[in-house]
Amino acid sequence: MTDLDRELRATMAHRASFAPGADGLMTAVLERGRRQRRRRVIAAVLALVLAGGAGAAFVVHPEENRTLQVTDGSAPWPAPAPIRPGRLPDGFDEPRVQYLRPGTWAFDAYRTSPRAWLSVDVMTREPELRRGPGERRTVEVDGADATLYWVPPHAFGDREYGTEPPESTGPFAELTYRREPGQWVRIAASNDEGGPMGLTEADLIGIAENLTDEKQPVADIVRMTLPPGTEVGHVQDGGSRATLVLVDAGAPDEPVSPADRPGTLHAGPTGARLTVLLTRSNDPELTRFNTTTATSARQRYEDLTAPVELPPGGKLFRDGPSVWYLHPLPGHDRMTIAIQVAATDPLATADTLRPIAQSVRSGPDARFPR
Amino acid sequence: MRSDFGSYLEADGATLLRFAYVLTGDHHLAEDLVQEALVQVHRRWARIDEPRAYVRKAILRHYLSWRRRRSSDEIPARDTALHAEAADHADRVVDRDALWNALATLPRQQRAVLTLRFYEDLDDTAIAELIGCSAHTVRGHASRGLARLRDSAALLHSVRGES
Question: Could you tell me the keywords of this UniProt record (chain A) (predicted)?
Fold first, then answer.
């Protein structure tokens, strides 16, 4: 064993003692599960509402085998973000644009020292102002009023800042303002480890005043044919995992949510109709579908950890209130396409989902393993 | 079923959070990964015979494949941080803070392999099974990760030598 090996063991053992505590873990897990179920229920209810309305001709006989009426060409891709950040404070990596939900884009950046997450969100709708124990006041950005919410550095667990992130975990700043008619901006920064984040009020105002009206395209990672009446409502590029959420065409714009904080997962759009996930074939989200034929505990465990096995044409799985259609991703032997839709949705049949899955290809910006 | 899951959380929750924190170096991300994995386990509790193995694997897979952050995959190298911290710790070739910070510069596959090897004390075959690659690939990740950490240590050493 080398000195470096010993140092690594010691460092990891030492650092493990700084891990978050397990108090409240049960509550957090149950609440998270409830939120996920709630989102599925909302999607199912919306699908039912739609089924009773404009889509009646399409959905009257959901049990009937139908061939999807695919549109020609590739899916209309989300519009580019209308602005881009100018120069960021020293040390931040190059921000990339993400499409969070209709009418909302985000640029995220990270800095290791002083550790800080930074996000610049731009949206067409006025966002909700954060309520919490931080200080809130009005500042000026380019001559216009902006709301600054500020939580100074403090120890993790400081009672003054409660137990809810982002305030509980460390310093947090959020600058929200209307940049021009129909365009709102939220700039948020945090250090979720509690130390100084090395950003001042002037830094945030400087970022705001250096935004430029230069459009930034959303990474083109997935090509597919959309089911009639849907459009792309969310694009998340995760390297070897990409998520595309389809919403009903004409879905209203949504501002960024207070739950969307820099450095964390964000919620997708409300009213999701189909979720198209491109991921590794051994992603646990998919391998759970291997368990159907297992007869022993060992076999079940092996099934849960082996890449999902599919026929060339893909396969439909039922999963409580959802239906999943899994299909190999052409050109990527280790990747699988997974389309999730509410079981009550008229699209939730193998004959409908198969051609959708078969139309999916990786886009030029994708970085999936082959 | 709820009480069984509760007992499992009581017994393993803190262990899972420590593992996730060493893996990610990030409180919030560690909690996020553990909670997400446990939601999956809770949903399928009756069908899972070895929750500890399943959860650990789920944490790893999410860490390696999910874009937990909304932007770039890798945390950039932090030479400036090594410089800054060098002056504070003059006695050791590689102090723990610097090593911890250097770990944050590694690609996720390399950090995962080193965490499983040095924190979980797993051999390459077990790591390969958990990550879903060959033992040869595991050795490659470990070798490159350790080399990068040594480079960071050498940089730190040279900085201290100059100061």
Answer: Membrane, Transmembrane, Transmembrane helix
Q: What is the pTM of this model?
A: 0.56
User: Is there a single domain that holds both residue B54 and residue B5?
Assistant: yes
Question: Residue B145: inside a domain, yes or no?
Answer: yes
Query: Is residue B77 domain-resident?
Result: no
Q: For residue B10, give its domain range.
A: 1-69
Spatial separation of the C-alpha atoms in residues A110 and A92, rounded to whole Å: 5
Query: Hey, are the CB atoms on B66 and A241 less than 8 Å from each other?
Result: yes
Residue with tokens 């083109």: A220
Q: Which residues of B touch A289 (CB under 8 A)?
A: none
Q: What is the CATH number of the domain that holds B112?
A: 1.10.10.10
Report CB contact under 8 Å: A262, B43.
Answer: no
Q: Which residues of chain A neighbour B40 with C-beta distances below 8 Å?
A: 284-285, 288
Inside any domain, residue B160: yes
What is the per-residue pLDDT for A135? Answer: 95
Q: Nearest chain B Cα to A13, which residue?
A: B119
The count of CB pairs under 8 A between chains A and B is 192
Chain B hits for A36, Cβ within 8 Å: 39
Q: Is the residue at B27 inside a domain?
A: yes
Q: B93 and B61, same structural domain?
A: no
- Please tell me the distance from the alpha carbon of residue B132 to that of residue B129, in angstroms, as a whole number: 5
**Does one domain contain both B112 and B64?**
no
B92 with B135, same domain: the answer is yes
pLDDT tens-digit readout, B42-91: 888 877 777 888 888 889 888 876 544 433 333 323 233 333 333 333 33
List CB contacts (< 8 A) between A17 and chain B: 18
Model confidence pLDDT, tens digit, residues A276-320: 999 989 887 788 787 656 676 666 666 667 888 899 899 999 988
Question: Crossing angle for the helix pair A3-16 and B96-103, nearest 10 degrees?
Answer: 90
Task: Let me know whether B92 and B120 are in one domain.
Answer: yes
Packing angle between helix B108-118 and helix B51-65, nearest 10 degrees? 150
Looking at residue B83, its pLDDT comes to 33
- Would the CB atoms of B78 and A193 count as touching at under 8 Å? no
Question: Which chain B residues contact residue A4 at CB under 8 A?
Answer: 94, 146, 149-150, 153
| Count: domains in chain B | 2
- Are residues B94 and B160 both part of a single domain? yes
Least confident piece of the model among A122-136, A213-227, B5-19, B51-65: B51-65
B3: pLDDT strictly greater than 70: no
Phi and psi, residue A274, nearest 5°: -130, 140
- Cα–Cα dist B21/B41, whole Å: 19
Are B49 and A22 inside 8 Å of each other by CB?
no
CA distance A329 to A366: 12
Of A8, A169, A283, Cβ closest to residue B118: A8
Residues B22 and B57 in one domain: yes
Q: Do B99 and A8 touch (CB under 8 A)?
A: yes
Whole-angstrom distance, CA of residue B59 vs CA of residue B38? 9
Say if residues B99 and A8 touch (Cβ distance below 8 Å).
Answer: yes
Same domain, B38 and B93: no
